[in-house]
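If you are new to this repository, start here. Below is one unmodified record pulled from the training split, so you can see the exact layout before writing a loader.
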Amino acid sequence: MPELMSLVRSTDVPTGAVGIWWIGQAGYIFKTSSGKVIFIDAYLSGALDGPPEAWPRRYPPPIQPEEVECDLFIATHNHSDHNDLEAIRRMDWDRIGAFLGPRNVIRALRGIGVPEGKLVLCDAGDTAVAAGLKLLATFCIPNDAEALDSAGYLITTEDGLRLYHTGDTGFHRFLYYMAAHPIDVMFVCINGKLGNMGGDEAAELARYLRPKLVVPNHYDMFARNMADQWEFLGRLNATGVEPPAKVLEVGETFVYRMDVAKA
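And here is the target side for that same chain:
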């Protein structure tokens, strides 16, 4: 497979579409039709590695931190598998347009020396414009005191495509408020551990929000925190309603078009 960052750069994304690459756990790379590149929740180090009773990665990162080049780098909350400071220290910050996240993420990034001019604070309920993209930070049910400010993000591309990354969140009916926002692709956690939604809850949320496509995540990285993505698809289908779902392979190129949800 070509080196992933080169593949992202060389991929032509047509108008009304977005390129999507899963990089494991809750991490993705998005590329818009104008060429804007966004990273979100990129866990690219072995910050949580250790013996089996710790949290060793099950596979190596598909991209090295030194290779990262993007217009916007987002972290939904300040856990190492989402705001990977070990990896961020190794990145060339001159090749990253801006870093965006809730307050504890911004505080942590400031603490390792990321320049103030590159930091964009966006707490739940806030809106922001970064790299020419509109963002709405969304409500989450956090899973510990370290991440009380956890947020999801609704990203609107220049073409009007709306990508909703739930972040790490437990299920609550209050999340139904997101039904007021048309969603093209919803990226949802399904691990059902450590306070996150499980497959049944993620399927119920998708049923209510009715995005055009659902992509599950947060089920693959750590042996102690696995879930069955195919079982989730079965649960989603059992609701008897749209939306369709897409299970991505790590590093796979997937181009979503606004007019056709390719599952």
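Two things worth knowing about this chain: The chain has one domain: 4-257. The chain has a mean pLDDT of 94.
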